[in-house]
Amino acid sequence: MDLQQTDPAPPAPADWHAQELLLMREIVRLVGRGPDAAPVLREMLHLMSELLGLNRGRVVLVDPAPAGGAAQGPRTASIQYAYGLTREEMARGHYAWGEGITGRVLATGQPAIVQDVDAEPLFLFRSVRRADLPQETVAFIALPIELGSVTVGVLACHRLRSRQRRLNDDLALLHVLATLVGQMLQLERLVAEQKQQLEARNRVLTNALNAKTARYGLVGNSPALLRALTELEQVAGTQATVLLLGESGTGKELFARALHLASGRRDAPFIKVNCAAIPEALFESELFGHEKGAFTGAGAARAGWFEQAHGGTIFLDEAGELPLAMQAKLLRVLQEGTLVRLGGTREVRVDVRLVAATHRDLAREVEAGRFRQDLFYRLNVIPIRLPSLRERREDVRTLALHFVSRANQAHERNVNLLPDALDRLEALDWPGNIRELGNVIERVVLLAEHPLIDAAALGRFLPDVTPPAVAPVLPAAAPATQAAAAAELTRPYVSARSHTPEALLEALDAHQGNQTRAAQALGLTLRQFSYRLRKAGLR
Questions:
Q1: Residue 409: Cβ within 10 Å count
Q2: What is the number of other CB atoms lying within 10 angstroms of the CB of residue 246?
Q3: What CATH number should be reported for the domain whose range is 223-386?
Q4: Separation CA 453–CA 221 (nearest Å)
Q5: Which stretches of the chain drop beneath a pLDDT of 70?
């Protein structure tokens, strides 16, 4: 493999420069039509062959990393655009990193020039077999395509060594074209990313507009959630004590607040008390208040949580953690509607609606002697079981988008989840329920290195659990228009020297100047025929 840009050929005639100018002018014209790289690259490869004799050109691009996080197996690249290659030849154009000449260019980021493919042991003849090439000496040129400083592909072509054009001239032009390809791919990627961001934002907005069940801050539309909401609304107008049951992280506080907002007490205080966070020695003071001098440090009287909730609702979260001694005092307050502050003697009347929550099985706690039976009966008037996230998988997407929107606003970020990322979230079991999902989303928003999060990028933020087996999502069949466009990537190879100027004129005369029919008669496309006319100076 020769990396030296030397060529014994004589200086190029002046008409080569005219062909180069025509090629660049046509490419610029196509670029001006829009950011879609495909038509520009196809035509560029076509013109390289038609005008300059750089035949069987191909653009090799790095294959996308497999979904699921870390790369599985060696990095590979494949032919994405070509001229003069059949579909079968393109399909064979797959290269591992460092494999053959193309793989070497991908791995090193350096151009490669093979002066004679027959004399180069590293040349694979993978896409085009030697028997399909001219029998004379054939060279191969491959240049890296870069995005920034990263090699993302290879621009390569065959070249007859006997051609009267300096190799250095071909190299200079190909360097320009490879740079142009990299810029076009970057522009296309940026446009695609912006489109994906807009689509993701639209999904968030659509979700916000359509989330009719986002009542009282509860997000979702699953049957399990709607069933619990229905039970909540049925008892909201009563004064009955409600016991919320379910796993940790299912949103008990939100349900308790929803119950308060749906009741006639909505304009009065809503007081939340986390029983698991209060030291046993402070329970009585926190719940029922204390008088001045009741204990060391009590420099002033203080109303407890029950007094602060007067007229409204008090929510005892993790009520199963209440000490036995405090359970008896709580029962008295619930039965009589009065309390006595710690260190005091005066009864204080309170009017509160109690909502309790626990993840414990209180019936078993009663059997074990850790919870008073009479208090259990008092709390268990209206039990409502809150569904786990596993029981409401239909809500995972809605909840995830809700958390993304909230985290973006809170942290001034612009992160969005792509559909395959939402699919992956939906497939997990979420043992921590909604709380766990919300925490994962916040980590994603804070730590994501890219504004668009796909399933692969999401992987490092997910809990270390094995998702349930799900049927693989197969890609949708390409529309007929896409199939037709794919067919245009390959054209039968016809040498640019296959028809003399005289043959072109004869074909035109035979068909009364109709270029379409003349091209068909010669086995050329209209574009091939047109370029041959211009190359010969006949237009």
A1: 10
A2: 20
A3: 3.40.50.300
A4: 24
A5: 1-14, 66-73, 201-216, 464-498, 537-539
Instruction: Give the position of tokens 């004379």.
Output: 136
Domain locations along the chain: 15-191, 223-386
CB atoms within 10 A of CB 322: 25
The amino acid that residue 478 corresponds to is A
pLDDT tens readout for residues 112-169:
999 999 999 999 999 999 888 888 899 999 999 998 889 999 999 998 877 778 888 8
Closest among 287, 226, 223, 288 to 258, alpha carbons compared: 226
With respect to CATH, is domain 15-191 assigned 3.30.450.40? yes
H or E element at residue 150:
strand 150-160
pLDDT at 209: 47
Name the maximum alpha-carbon separation found in the chain.
Answer: 120
User: What does the alpha-carbon distance between residue 355 and residue 256 come to, in Å, rounded to a whole number?
Assistant: 6
Distance CA 56, CA 34 (A): 26
Q: Is the torsion defined by CA of 326, 382, 222, 360 positive or negative?
A: positive
- What distance in Å separates the CA atoms of residue 140 and residue 161, rounded to the nearest whole number? 10
CA 112 remoteness from chain centre: 36
Environment class of 171 (CB within 10 Å of its CB; exposed 0-12, middle 13-18, buried 19+) = middle
Whole-model pTM?
Answer: 0.51
CA distance 48 to 56: 9
Residue type at position 446:
L
- Residue 241: predicted pLDDT: 93
Helix (H/G/I), strand (E/B), else coil: 427: helix
Q: Is the separation of the CB atoms in 433 and 247 below 8 Å?
A: yes
Question: How many whole angstroms separate alpha carbon 81 and alpha carbon 48?
Answer: 13
Q: Which of 492, 498, 388 is nearest to 434 (CA)?
A: 388
3-state secondary structure 293-328: CCCCCCCCCECCHHHHCCCCEEEEECHHHCCHHHHH
Of the candidates 44, 8, 24, which has an alpha carbon nearest to the alpha carbon of residue 489? 44
Distance CA 403, CA 65 (A): 27
Q: Is 147 exposed, middle or buried (0-12, 13-18, 19+ CB in 10 A)?
A: middle
DSSP 68: S
What is the identity of the amino acid at 157? C
Identify the pLDDT of residue 168.
86
Rounded Cα gap, residues 189 and 536, in angstroms: 38
Q: Taking the CA of residue 169 as centre, how many other CA atoms within 13 Å lie in the half-sphere pointing to its CB?
A: 23
CB-CB contact of 391 with 224 (8 Å) = yes
Q: At residue 68, what are phi and psi to the nearest 5 degrees?
A: 115, 10
Both tokens of 506, joined, read 């004869």
The pLDDT assigned to 477 comes to 37
Number of other CB atoms surrounding residue 417 within 10 Å = 28
Res 16: pLDDT: 82
Q: Are 418 and 452 in contact (CB under 8 A)?
A: yes
- Return d(Cα 539, Cα 534) in angstroms, integer: 5
Query: How is the beta sheet containing 138-147 ordered, strand by strand?
Result: 94-96, 76-82, 55-62, 150-160, 138-147, 112-114
